[in-house]
Design goal:
alpha+beta; six-stranded antiparallel β-sheet; flat
Length: 362
């Protein structure tokens, strides 16, 4: 009787190698990075009271009181009659979006992993390793969503008004839909002009620039053109902090795009549910909070975790007919996010802090 068919088995490399390392790579979250830096900046628009109230605001509206810019009328004649003047105030609504990520784990899948070419001594080690792989995907999904929605928030809240003599009809830079258009010939010295544009609107820096990765090419070129070159472009980069993202898009005829704003003037709040804050337990469920390490970012994100276990038929999910009544672990990660920008009482007539620009192909 031939034994080859019964003893032969596939040759499998031992897991623990770096063959799939590129599957775990993170993209560049420059917008999220910059806003998280702004949260921690001394110039942040989010004071500790706003942050604390935000965390416990589930189920109720969160409003931030502000004073509108006034307009005192000057006279040139003294009088015994003093005209009244009152400040006006407003309440800014904080708008939340909820982000939720789920996954499950089946412990019985990981029994005898060491007999399957794995690098694990125990099933607990195999379970933990696979769970950490799933956690990478959770963090990636959260970061990606925050990056994309922050970009959309900035695009929707860019200033469409400027007092600058450098921008507008007949000026050095045209403006289309609230976006400063930078021709190819003017790009080497645009950063010098951008300071003037911001200062003419009474924003005096330091400034943060959020650009797509394509912008990095020209920035690196111009920032390294020093006094020994035919044209020195390095002088203009003082007071700028550059952050780059793979998720700021270019329009037609555009080489690169981005935003300029005064550092600290954009913020992000987050909160978790009341059950998470209170640490509830119920039957097979537990609510608690945790901090997700955000790879490549300056801070972690506080999230709520709902953890529970069921007795389930997992035979189909595992392709193991024996697992008809098996332990099935579930994990849910969630938090609410809100984006804020420095208050502008009249964005239709009053310049805002956030300017968008585009580097044109020609």
């Amino acid at each position: 009787m031939a034994l080859l068919a019964t003893v032969r088995r596939e040759l499998r490399a031992r897991y623990g190698n770096q063959f799939d390392a590129d599957e775990n790579r993170m993209t560049r979250y420059g917008v999220l990075n910059a806003v998280m830096e702004d949260n921690a900046s001394p110039q942040t628009i989010l004071d500790p009271d706003i942050v604390a109230k935000a965390m416990i605001s589930e189920g109720t509206d969160l409003k931030i009181p502000v004073f509108n810019k006034g307009n005192v009328t000057l006279k040139n004649v003294r009088s015994c009659t003093i005209d009244p003047y009152q400040n006006t105030t407003a309440l800014v609504d904080v708008v939340w979006v909820t982000l939720v990520a789920d996954f499950d784990m089946i412990p019985a899948q990981y029994l005898n992993q060491q007999d399957r070419g794995g690098a694990f001594e125990t099933w607990q080690e195999a379970y933990s390793y696979n769970m950490n792989k799933k956690m990478v995907e959770v963090v990636r999904a959260f970061n990606q969503e925050l990056e994309d929605t922050l970009f959309a928030f900035m695009d929707a809240n860019k200033s469409t008004v400027t007092n600058s003599s450098l921008v507008g009809a007949g000026a050095k830079y045209s403006e289309v839909g609230g976006v400063i258009q930078v021709p190819l010939a003017d790009q080497p010295l645009f950063w010098n002009d951008a300071k003037v544009i911001m200062q003419q609107d009474d924003f005096y820096g330091p400034w943060k620039v959020l650009g797509n990765t394509a912008l990095q090419s020209s920035v690196n070129q111009y920032i390294n053109q020093g006094g020994g070159n035919a044209e020195n472009t390095n002088f203009q980069f003082a007071d700028y902090m550059f952050r780059f993202s793979n998720h700021i898009t270019n329009g037609a005829g555009v080489n690169a795009a981005g935003f300029i704003y005064e550092s600290g003037k954009i913020g992000m709040l987050n909160r978790v549910s009341a059950d998470h804050l209170m640490g509830h337990r119920s039957n097979d469920a537990e609510w608690y909070t945790d901090s997700l390490a955000a790879w490549g970012l300056p801070a972690s994100i506080e999230v709520g975790v709902l953890e529970k276990s069921n007795c389930d038929d997992v035979s189909t999910a595992t392709s193991n007919a024996a697992l008809t009544a098996s332990k099935h672990d579930y994990y849910q990660f969630s938090f609410d996010a809100a984006y804020l920008i420095s208050y502008n009482s009249d964005p239709l007539t009053q310049p805002g802090v956030l300017k968008k620009f585009e580097f044109l192909n020609t």
